[in-house]
Amino acid sequence: MRQILEYLLDHQTLSKAEAQSILTEISNAKFSEAEVISFVTIFLMRSITQEEMEGFREALLGLSLRVDLETEDLVDIVGTGGDGKNTFNISTLSSFIVAGTGQKVAKQGNYGSSTLSGASNVLEKLGYTFKKNEKDLKRDLYETNICFLHAPLFHPALQNVAPLRKQLGIRTFFNLLGPLVNPAYPKYNLIGVANLEIARLYQYVTQKEKFRNFMLLHALDGYDEISLTGDTKIITQGGEKIKSAQDFHYKNISPNSIFGGDTLEEAAGIFLRILEGKGSEEQNAVVLANAAVALENTEKYGNYEECLLRAKESLFSFNALNCFKKAIK
Questions:
Q1: What's the CA gap between 68 and 285, in Å, rounded?
Q2: CA distance 266 to 258
Q3: In this predicted model, what pLDDT tens digit does every residue of 137-191 receive, in sequence order?
Q4: What is the pLDDT of residue 238?
Q5: For residues 187 and 61, what is the distance between their CA atoms, to the nearest angstrom?
Q6: pLDDT tens, 222-242?
Q7: In the β-sheet with 239-243, what is the strand arrangement from edge to edge?
Q8: Cα separation of 200 and 211, whole Å?
């Protein structure tokens, strides 16, 4: 590892094969804790390259447990995190709203490494039991239209580095890899990214790796989702566009209105209140806009306006809440 660190500190980058090999060795606990932290820290000081991203991704996928849910009609809604905005769990709530419309969701998530309310934190707090075997996951998908894949159960490599990520307490390149390594290989991917540099990197990787239906979201004021606090850049195979809050049929909102709370208990309370139809107008608007765009990406229900109507019906008719209640039983 010393030679690798010296090489990287000399402003060099890794090839795809080198990145894949090193992350595989890290996952197999070949290096000391100090060496791994040093390696990860280097990528906090400079941007990860496309080849490094591809190599790290292949390493994680090569070590992962593949999940066959016996359907291609799957969507994942996920953000890279690390935007420092401390919003409530928008992508996870949007996932249950999408499930409430009848669209099947394979949502991958994890404990927060730089936030207290990662998807896994909140769902576990609310009584959800993480599942690993395909039988249980397929049953969830059949009964509720959604299954949740707690990333460390399917990526042993993440289990080995989880304590180190928690110690660092800041976003690392593992956060960037998460949305690209869903073990169910969903056909539709809605991925939120925290900055335009990462958006470009994701664009290159998703196109090269032939992600079939990807949509990248970046709020221009720094959120890794549609925040309605400003304009949003949307990147797909077909090109790029910038949309305002009004384009999503909502008004601009303030950052304070989508704050996620100071404790896990507060975050879980916000999550449940929104599903119960007790969310504020601004909270509802954000989750509905994200859910509608995810539905639009599947091309299952037509244009954005139709998808928004279905999302509203899912939330306000408590279909999303019923999906959640069934999921935690």
A1: 34
A2: 13
A3: 999 999 999 999 999 899 877 766 766 666 666 667 777 888 899 999 999 999 9
A4: 85
A5: 16
A6: 999 999 999 999 999 889 999
A7: 146-150, 105-109, 75-79, 188-192, 213-219, 232-236, 239-243
A8: 15
What's the pTM?
Answer: 0.93
Which residues, including other chains, have CB under 8 Å from residue 6's CB and lie 6 or more apart? none
Question: What DSSP letter does each residue of 120-141 carry, written as one string?
Answer: HHHHHHTTPPP--SHHHHHHHH
Give the pLDDT score at 112. Answer: 79
- In contact, 40 and 2? CB cutoff 8 Å: no
Residue with tokens 């996920």: 78
Q: Which CB contacts under 8 angstroms, 24+ apart, belong to 117-122?
A: 117/88, 117/89, 117/260, 117/261, 117/264, 117/267, 117/268, 118/81, 119/89, 119/91, 119/92, 119/148, 120/150, 120/151, 121/264, 121/267, 122/89, 122/92, 122/264, 122/267, 122/268, 122/271
